[in-house]
Amino acid sequence: MGTEKKMMNTTLRIALLIIVIIGAFAAAGCIFDSTEIGKDPIDEPIVPDSPENVIYNLELAYNKRDINLYKQCLSPQFTFYFNPIDVGNDADGYIIPSSWGYEEDWTATQNMFTRAYDISMQLPEHLIDDPPDGATTYTAENITVSLLVMVNADNGFIANRGTLEFNFETYDSNGKTYWRIKDWRDFTYA
Known about the structure:
The chain is α+β, with helices and mostly antiparallel strands. It is 34% helix and 33% strand.
């Protein structure tokens, strides 16, 4: 009877320990932010009142394939500069130019958003310092990115080596100052 009682006590202790552990994880889920690791706590655009917020919206636009949000991140005088090592290369019959203007860029981005099987962009959080007070332009250099564009379930392209450079400018709307990307310089490679 003593051995049987010991086994029952041990089993009861293990069961209680499991319940306590599960309870602790459940309580932690209530105490701590319950968003998934690597996921943004919000899934909506935020006010572009800083360069960092513009970058957040840019990443969100890619991940949601939202061309209107993408366009809101850009200046009407926006220029995208291709990586200098890619300029002049033939990409399926298209010779890569040194840059694209606003219309070419958002049209190409819209095509990518529409045709890609899947798109995932990740930019590091809190990567951009606040511009000095009164600044109307700001440059963020050496920004790392991971961009995965899947053509279909088995084939895609990943850019996760090299860096980006963003040049921002301010604009006023309804008496408030906001930021947007004036140019984007690509220094990534596959």
